[in-house]
Specification:
single chain; alpha/beta; eight-stranded mixed beta sheet; two-stranded antiparallel sheet; 16 strands; about 25% helix; about 30% strand
Length: about 260
């Protein structure tokens, strides 16, 4: 089953980093966040990816084009203009890098890769969010309900600290708890090919008309993931993810 990753947006809220690279290439622990996302899917056995490129897509192309060399130890013979590879390692990934336009909206990007997906069930997520979601469980949930689309619903990280109060006495103080209130779209979708019929063109936002129409027709179900999820919208988010990565157990690192 193919995994589609939306990686073409401008990332304007992270302009300090995205001036020179697309947001999916912003690094967490020395690796682009798109690598972390792909490692999550690969851990569950999904190794075929379609990356929807847009803004500075060539940076993502160059990363994967040179991935094998980046992962390997080399002896380079300058005079002979050759090299010998040592201790080489690369993930068993097949990655289609598709230019879907600099200004195309999220729905339009999905529509543009229809021919690469074909008439098969496929998964899709955003190129800027990680979670410790069990992909196989999401897929089983989708198949059980038999609808056109499944979205992983998550609780947003809290922006503020929390307090427990009993009889005007603060009994517990929590500095920015991970899980906030309510449910939001966390990505990690599963789609049937019928979803393409809900997208009109490049100007279509996946999260608006297609999702709204699928919902109105009873064809959109939500898998509730109430554990770790974090998007990367600001420098503060980047710092948080890097701090978590160097900790004892990064919560989204489901692979060994």
């Amino acid at each position: 089953m193919k995994v589609v990753i939306l990686a073409g947006g401008l990332g304007t809220r992270l302009s300090e980093e995205t001036e020179v690279k697309p947001k999916p290439m912003v690094e967490v622990g020395g690796r682009p966040i798109i690598w972390h996302i792909m490692k999550i899917y690969s851990h569950y056995g999904f190794n075929e990816f379609i990356v929807c490129l847009g803004y500075k897509g060539y940076v993502i192309k160059e990363f994967f084009a040179n991935y094998f060399l980046h992962q390997s130890d080399l002896t380079i013979d300058l005079q002979a203009n050759g090299f010998e590879v040592h201790n080489n390692y690369a993930e068993p990934w097949r990655v289609a890098l598709i230019n879907t336009g600099d200004k195309t909206m999220t729905g339009g990007r999905v529509r543009r890769i229809q021919s690469y997906v074909g008439d098969e069930t496929f998964m899709l997520t955003y190129g800027d969010g990680v979670a410790n979601v069990d992909i196989n469980t999401v897929l089983a949930f989708h198949r059980e309900h038999g609808k056109h689309a499944t979205v992983t619903a998550v609780r947003p990280p809290s922006r503020f600290g929390g307090m427990s109060i009993e009889e005007n006495i603060v009994t517990n103080f929590i500095e920015k708890p991970q899980i906030g209130e309510g449910w939001i779209n966390g990505g990690f979708f599963v789609f049937e090919p019928q979803v393409f019929d809900y997208i009109r063109g490049d100007e279509t936002l996946l999260e608006r008309e297609p999702m709204e129409k699928l919902s109105a027709e009873g064809q959109l179900v939500a898998y509730k993931h109430d554990r770790f999820w974090q998007c990367m919208d600001t420098l503060r988010d980047v710092q948080l993810l890097n701090d978590l990565w160097i900790g004892e157990s990064p919560p989204w690192k489901v692979w060994s």
